[in-house]
Give the backbone structure.
Amino acid sequence: MRILGIDYGDRKIGLAVSDELKLTAQALETYRRKNQKEDKEYFKKLVSRYEIEEIVVGLPLRMDGSPGTRATKTREFARWLKAVLNLPVLFFDERLTTQQAIKILHHHKGNPKVKKDLEDQISAVIILMAYLESKRVKSDAGQSR
């Protein structure tokens, strides 16, 4: 069973998936949203193909930690996703992940559209890796008691 990481956008969604041991995250693709019916079919197939048991969505908070318009839209998408897939959907603070992705891609030459898609995927990987690490830290802290 794996965890799906999502960097949500109104038109494009960056995706990453954990390995079965939940130690690493691999970029999948950038999904271009279509309509609710096609989006629903896409995510159902994705969950089945990768045996997803949990979803973590990057929550875009402001630098002071308060939610803004993007956070509200992301929460709406997460509610829809949870209803469609009947899986746990959790949030993870994604502040600065886009800047991290941009730094990683700084030297990437090529098509700007491809670069933007890679940015979304890398953001999803960063969100998922940070989430997996936070789970390990909590698990380690619980074992050391």
